[in-house]
Design goal:
By secondary structure, the protein is of the alpha+beta class. It is 32% helix and 18% strand. The longest helix has 21 residues, at 178-198.
Length: 401
Amino acid sequence: MRHAYVYDAVRTPFGRYGGALSGARPDDLAAFVVGEQVRRAPSLDPALIDDVILGNANGAGEENRDVARMAVLLAGLPLSVPGATVNRLCGSSLEAAVQAARAVESGDADVLIAGGVESMSRAPWVMLKPERAFPAVNAELASTTLGWRLVNPSMEPEWTVSLGEATERLREKHGITRERQDDFAVRSHLLAHEAWEAGHYANLVSPYEGPGAGREPLARDEPVRPGTSVELLAELRPSFRPDGTITAGNASPLTDGASAALIGSEAAADLTGLAPLARIAGRATVAGEPQYFGFAPVAAAERALERSGITWADVAAVELNEAFAAQSLACVDAWGIDLCIVNAWGGATALGHPLGASGTRILGTLARRLRSTGERWGVAAICIGVGQGMAVVLENVEAQA
């Protein structure tokens, strides 16, 4: 079997809900990162791209009708380049990267773009179609921005609690205090700010200059608050329970953005003019109780490590998507790893979590972190609504050599 490699990764800055990217359609955001990924590969003939696979969690608005294919067309790629859209909720773009890797390993492809997009600002309201003509009752609109809607009445009520309530239950189960959550959130903001100041995101983020960009392109992640503190976060009210611990300050904010990664075989080095950053060494997807979705990355990462033939003792860098500080801490505790190797350039609590884009954000960040430090092994992991988790193990090609 052939190996699959990450050659490059790029994303838009992430914009706040209703913020700087709210004027940009999700298909335009997707087209921007697809176009940027082609532009950054100096020798790549776009006609040689075997497929574009993008993740998207909502798919209810302007990104409908296969946003990957729409992105190919809007980016001006040859009409011969296909596109497929996948949905594994928060893990959608990581799923896209895994599917791209499988295509390479099986010999079906040499060069693919994998990524994802979400505009949580522009996610529409939807309503059920009436079952008969001329109904005499009112119709109710449901927001598609986040969480359950139009729930099947046969679903177990325990499974369909809100994401916030589910995380309150998880932190109770694992004894995660409000103080630890707020400390973790402040750390995320400070590390994200420091990473931006140090230039770590310079080759990972391209200022968005596409349609709907506004007068000045967004150049940095909008939600990052370097001036936050534990004292400020302690003043925030709980969001889901009167006596709860989860607040707007220790959870990932609603955001808009897109990300992409260039995935290829060994032959892709000559086709793209790029050297590979990291080898995709292992991956895993797991599932469990829907209400404990936040803990699913634990088993996913451990299974991916086993398939890679390494252990946590070999791992030098972890990118764990911070849907909530509480679930992130529960995962780190269960792994028994040092927090200092987790999200060293900040995480989703600070950067934001546009659902369909987060998977390739953490994958690309992990590849660049490994290259920056010279360490060999890293893990990208993400929790997924409705009880799933995914993880990918990367091996730094330079460290391997």
